[in-house]
Amino acid sequence: MKKIALVFLITIVLFGITAVITIVDIRRYADQPAADDASPIVVNIRPGQSLKTTATTLHQAGIIESPFRFIVIARLKKYDTNLKAGEYPLSKAMSPIEILTTMVKGAVKLYKLTIPEGYNIYQIADLVADAGLGIQGDFIRAATDTKFVHKKGLNADTFEGYLFPDTYLFPKDVSIDGIVSTMISRFKSVFNPEWKARAAELGFSVHQVVTLASIIEKETGAAFERPIISSVFHNRLSKRMRLESDPTVIYGIKNFDGNLTRKHLVTSTPYNTYKIRGLPPGPIANPGRESLEAALFPEDTTFIFFVSKKDRTHHFSTNLQEHNRAVRRYQLGRK
User: Fold this and answer.
1) 268: exposed, middle or buried (C-beta count within 10 Å: 0-12, 13-18, 19+)?
2) What pTM was estimated for this model as a whole?
3) 3.30.1490.480, 3.20.20.100, 3.40.50.10050, 3.40.190.80: which CATH number matches 29-105?
4) Domain 110-190 architecture
C-alpha cells in the first residue's frame, strides 16, 4: 500500500514538473521570434481558414517554429476565434504573440491609391486597376450607377466630381463599392456646412459648385490663378455669356484623340460650352479642395476672358479687344 502511495506521489510530482516545464516553454515560445530577419513576408489568411491551416502556413513560410505551440498560445489567449482574414506583412523577427495580436487587430497590408486633382472617372478606374484593387470596368460601372449615387445622398447621375482627390490606403480585399464610398465620405467631410451655406448665398446648388470647380481645375495651370479663373466664369455666368471652356468640349467628345479642332467647337453636345449657356449638366473631372474653394470664393475682378501664355499662366482681359491682342501675342506669336 505504501509503495502504491509513493508511486502515486511521484507521478503527481512528475506531472507537476512537466506542467511547469510546458508552461515555461510555451511562455518562452510566445515571446521568442523564429529568427532575426525582419524582411517582410506577406501571408494571406483566407476567410474561414482554420487555426491549424494558419499555423501550418506560417510555419511553411518560416515565420514560426512550432505550429503546435502556436495553436496552444492562440487558444490560451482566446485568439483562436478572433483571427481576421486578409494579407498580413509579417516577418521572422516577430514573436508568435505579436503575430497573433496583429491578426486579431486585422492590421492587414494596405495598398496606396493616390488620386490626382482633375482626374475623371475613367482615369481613376485605371489607377484602381494599376493598384491591384479592382477591374476598370467594375469601377466605371459603380461610379456611373445612378441608384448608387442617389443612395449616397448626391443629387447627380454619376459620381463624377465627387471622387475626392487624395491618397487612400485600402486592404487587398476592399470592394469597389467600398473604394467609391470612402472617396465620397472624404468629399462630404471637405464640403462642410459653411461651404453649403456659401453655395446657397451665391444661388448655386452643391452640384453646380462641383461642376464649376471641375472646370476651374481643368483650366488651371498655376495654382494661384484658381480664384482669378473662377472670377472669369462667375462674371460670364452673371452676364449670361457662354463659358467657352475647351476642357468641357473635350469631356463631351467620345474617344477624344488629343487634337481639339474647330469642328469639335461647333458640334453640339451637352458639355460644349461654346454652344450652350450656363454650366454643363455635371462635373467634367474630380476637383480638389482648392478648386472647390475657388468656385465658392472667386477673386473680385471684372475679367471676362483669359488666354494661355504657354507657361502655365494666363493673360486676363476685361474686353474682347484686349483679349484678341493677347491671343495674337501669346497664341499666334504676333506683337
Assistant:
1) exposed
2) 0.85
3) 3.30.1490.480
4) 2-Layer Sandwich (3.30)
